[in-house]
Amino acid sequence: QAEHRVASTWLAGPPALELSQREGRGAAADGARETDVGLAWPLWRLGQRQQSADAAEAEVAWARAAEQVARLKLAAQVRESATQLTTAESQAQQAERQHQLLEALSADVERRVKAGDLAPADAMAARADMLAARAMARQAQQALEVQRSAWALLTGWQIAPQPEAFPEEPDAQPGALVDDHMEARLADAAVQRARQRLAQAQAQWGAPPELAIGLRQERPGWGQPLERSVALSLRWPLGSEAHNQPRLAAAWAEQDTAQAAQQRLRLQLEAELSLARSHLAATRAQAEAHQERAALLSERARLLQKAFQAGESALPEVLRALAAASQAESDAVRQQAAVAQAQARFHQALGQLP
Questions:
Q1: Distance (Å, rounded) from C-alpha 92 to C-alpha 84?
Q2: Rounded distance, CA 266 to CA 270, Å?
Q3: Largest CA distance in the chain
Q4: Which residue stretches of the chain are H helix?
Q5: 86: alpha, beta or left, given left = phi > 0 and alpha = psi -120 to 50?
Q6: Half-sphere exposure (CA, 13 Å, Cβ side) for 267?
Q7: Pairwise CA distance, residues 210 & 16, whole Å
Q8: Is the whole-model pTM more than 0.85?
Q9: How far does Cα 6 stand from its chain's mean position?
């Protein structure tokens, strides 16, 4: 913006004040004095002002694109932290449910042992599994507190994040989707900025000319009348290609580097988008399988627990079924979190902000 304000002015640089005085010495020039006062204004060369304005506009566009890319990178950190926090919450809730279930089962076994229906060894086994579930629940709660602290440190919020509503996934090819990616826009802006800098360097092949106006006051000698005159001058520096060659070479190199980075970035973004899409499809299929397995094992554990209460099933079999159901439910929770994370990474690969 500062460069754009400079290009909007009529001068190529700040004006200069000129002040000089000469006095005569010797018998012939005794008493002679000349005083010059003037102002000099640097002028734009033909096309320099427009090129400077275009270069400033390209800089502004690049800065805005860089800001959006920085927001996108921050959004990736927020998405990762939010996913980890919601996963920790789900695991803590599942561990607490398992603990309460085994605690109720242990209390039931204790009553049946006192009634003489079961052996004391059964009470020990049920209580051991209950204590293990309690330890797992406390461990999950501690992991949840760690994720809450990380979320608060990153965002400054103490409340848990709401699940992100993802838009419908586009079916277009990665090459077409990359055009709207923020990093691709930044690469395009970098190429345009390099081109404008090259055009600006080509237009500025010499120092700016200067227009000067001055007032001269002369006194030829003692007793002589003062003489005044006005001077108008134009100073035109003669530029040479050799002096401007380093600046042109640097501008050419910047443009070639920006174009190479743009091509490499497009290939990278297309590969990341294809990988994120395939990973999302795979995690969804795995989540469905884990969810079905967890439902089956949970129903089996419920039936065995009902049979145990009716005296038709042994306690070790019930404990194994409950452990298997708990493990399957934990796997399903983790896989569901993996789906949410894969969705977030897919939309991150699309270059979309939450």
A1: 12
A2: 6
A3: 141
A4: 2-7, 48-114, 120-155, 174-178, 182-203, 241-309, 315-349
A5: alpha
A6: 5
A7: 10
A8: no
A9: 31
